[in-house]
């Protein structure tokens, strides 16, 4: 809020990155047809090179979502690039990001817009029951964004938020240069940190709910965890010079040793999935240490 006046929002641009999401994207588009916000809406899908019928699925919703457009974004892989390409074509006052494999709840736009009137960026509340079975929830653990902005803990740093449900004023997004495309994961964390370091405020929007979908297979969970682990090391190398504390070596070695000692959990149906997720995380961090020439266990 500047000079006692709330930021005017007449048009929102919803940005969805997409790569071979035909199995889930329909549910997300259906959810967007149920939004009740009374302003103008455009939906911009950045297609990262889909070959599974995603484009045809999107086209089938044009009559029900008049502001729907597809932006080709296959020239560089990664969700950050797909989101940047779509955002560059946006005309809304604010950008609302959601993923092709999640589902926004009724009233999602209203919940974000109510916060963006007075703050530069807002993060949706994540709900994990609707789209995930017991195994998927056990694999992933309890994500903190169900209750508020997650704090970054390894090492402690600024709050951050997932890109699935992030809202930001378009002029602020453009001033920050969008998402950093060198990230294949954690581009949302990096953006939230650059936003805050530039003096802007990121707030939690509890009334803007996103039903998030976790990987349902052990292989999918392992790949996701390894990707997160690697890019947690990468983001550590990028922010050490910007105030992020140094990670001590011994606690990381102890956590790695503890994981090895708990390897018999592979024989337990109830514990196997979580062990595999943590193993992926640790192996991803080890690969990140080699790739980025640092020690960050």
Brief characterization of the structure:
This protein is an alpha/beta fold.
Topology at a glance:
Elements: E1 11-18, H1 22-33, E2 40-47, H2 54-59, E3 68-72, H3 79-88, E4 94-97, E5 103-104, H4 108-116, E6 121-127, H5 134-140, E7 151-153, E8 156-159, E9 166-169, H6 170-175, H7 187-197, E10 202-211, H8 218-239, H9 249-261, H10 269-292
Parallel strand pairs: 1-2, 1-4, 2-3, 6-10
Antiparallel strand pairs: 4-9, 5-10, 6-9, 7-8
What does this 3D model show about the protein?
- With 297 residues, this protein is of the alpha/beta class.
- It folds into two domains: 11-211, Spore Coat Polysaccharide Biosynthesis Protein SpsA, Chain A (Alpha-Beta Complex); 218-292.
- Helices cover 40% and strands 19% of the residues.
- The protein has helices spanning 22-33, 54-59, 79-88, 108-116, 134-140, 170-175, 187-197, 218-239, 249-261, 269-292, and strands at 11-18, 40-47, 68-72, 94-97, 103-104, 121-127, 151-153, 156-159, 166-169, 202-211.
- An eight-stranded mixed sheet has the order 3-2-1-4-9-6-10-5. Strands 7-8 form a two-stranded antiparallel sheet.
- β2 (40-47), α2 and β3 form a beta-alpha-beta unit.
- The longest helix has 24 residues, at 269-292.
- The chain is globular.
- The model has no long low-confidence stretch (mean pLDDT 93).
């Amino acid at each position: 809020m500047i000079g006692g006046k709330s930021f005017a929002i007449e048009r929102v641009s919803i940005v969805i990155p997409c790569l071979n999401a035909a199995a889930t994207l329909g549910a997300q588009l259906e959810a967007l047809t149920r939004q009740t916000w009374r302003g103008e809406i455009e939906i911009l899908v950045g297609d990262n090179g889909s070959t599974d019928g995603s484009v045809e699925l999107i086209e089938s919703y044009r009559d029900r979502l008049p502001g729907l457009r597809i932006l080709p974004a296959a020239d560089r892989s990664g969700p950050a690039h797909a989101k940047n390409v779509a955002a560059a074509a946006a005309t809304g006052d604010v950008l609302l990001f959601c993923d092709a494999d999640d589902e926004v709840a009724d009233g999602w736009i209203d919940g974000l817009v109510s916060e963006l009137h007075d703050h530069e960026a807002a993060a949706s509340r994540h709900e994990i029951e609707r789209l995930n079975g017991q195994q998927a929830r056990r694999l992933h653990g309890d994500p903190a964004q169900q209750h508020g902005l997650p704090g970054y803990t390894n090492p402690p740093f600024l709050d951050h938020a997932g890109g699935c449900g992030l809202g930001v004023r378009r002029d602020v997004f453009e001033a920050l240069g969008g998402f950093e495309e060198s990230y294949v994961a954690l581009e949302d964390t990096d953006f939230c940190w650059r936003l805050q370091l530039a003096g802007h405020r990121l707030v939690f929007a509890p009334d803007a709910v996103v039903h998030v979908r976790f990987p349902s297979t052990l292989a999918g969970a392992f790949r996701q965890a390894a990707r997160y682990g690697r890019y947690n090391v990468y983001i550590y190398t990028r922010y050490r010079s910007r105030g992020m504390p140094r990670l001590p070596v011994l606690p990381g070695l102890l956590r790695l040793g503890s994981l090895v000692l708990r390897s018999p959990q592979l024989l337990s149906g109830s514990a196997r999935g979580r062990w595999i997720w943590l193993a992926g995380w640790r192996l991803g961090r080890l690969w990140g240490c080699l790739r980025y020439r640092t020690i960050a266990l």
